[in-house]
Amino acid sequence: MNNKVNYTLIGILVVIGLAMIVVFSYWLLQPSQERAMKNYYVYFDESVLGLNIEAPVKFRGIDVGKVSKININPKNTEQVQVTVSILKTTPIKTTTRAKLTSQGITGLSYINLTMGENGTELLEKSDGERYPVIKSTPSFFEKFELSFGDVSKNLSKTLDGTQALLNEENQKQVTIILNRSAKFMDKLDRMFNEKTIKHFQNSIENIELTSAKLNIMMPKIENFIENSVEWENKLAANFQTIMKSYMGIKGSMDVFKASVARGDFNIKGITSELVPNINNTLLEMQQLIIRMDSLAEQYEKSPGDILYKTQEINKGPGE
């Protein structure tokens, strides 16, 4: 039996052991990645198909964490509880939102974070929760599914209403309406043939000619109206003169009646005012009759003067 001890080998083993102790101590003392992470809860009301454990958590394309656990929310079985581990250096705020996002055509999903507004408070855990809860927003597919569901419901209602509207009786009525419309259009087409269209064009041309003639006649009609107004004014003046004379005669007759009632028969004094008024009235009536007779004779000989005659300019002596 060899009792000789190899001290060189023992020394080498001691040195190796000391080195391993130093390395192990350094590994224990350095901060691990787990200690640099912070856990959060995210509750989804939609399917998390394609989201796996170790799936990335990103903010604007940068990996800031990972999914560490996926299970059903024990407080609400309609929700999925996703536990995410995010770097402590990531500022998770009260306005931060998590959204499930698909990674291209692979079918896998990841959680995308929006950090919210600047200046808001950091997210803290609430009572009854183990970790702080990041609120979620519906994904693109969830929004599309909800919108498609609403469209599908509206389309179904529309189809049901259309089916109820187009029942057998209404179909008969629609058929009758279509037949009548076809007959009406056929009659309309036959009515608006080339001859009718030509007559219509001629009528339009005649209307245009009539309008042109009316434009020419308007100044003459205005002249006629002016002459009629002037003639009426003259007649009115003559009638006013006659009225004044009549009022004078009436006053004289009243005086005569009063004198007779008093027994005053001074005919000379009574008729001194009556006779001149009667004479003036008779003269004015004679002049009015002469003027009316002259006007009637003038318009009887030349009716065109009503429209075409203009006012004559009185000439001075020697002109």
Give a short overview:
With 319 residues, the chain is of the alpha/beta class. It contains six helices and seven strands; from the N terminus they run H-E-E-E-E-E-E-E-H-H-H-H-H.
- How far is the first residue's CA from the last residue's CA? 181 Å
Q: Tally the helices: what do you get?
A: 6
**Category from helices, strands and their pairing:** alpha/beta
- As a percent range, the share of strand residues is 15-25%
Helix content: 55-70%
Overview of this protein structure:
- This protein has 319 residues and is an alpha/beta fold.
- Among the domains are: 37-143; 218-308.
- 57% of the residues lie in helices and 15% in strands.
- The protein is built from six helices and seven strands.
- Strands 1-4-3-2-6-5-7 form a seven-stranded mixed beta barrel.
- The radius of gyration is 59 Å and the shape is elongated.
- The mean pLDDT is 76.
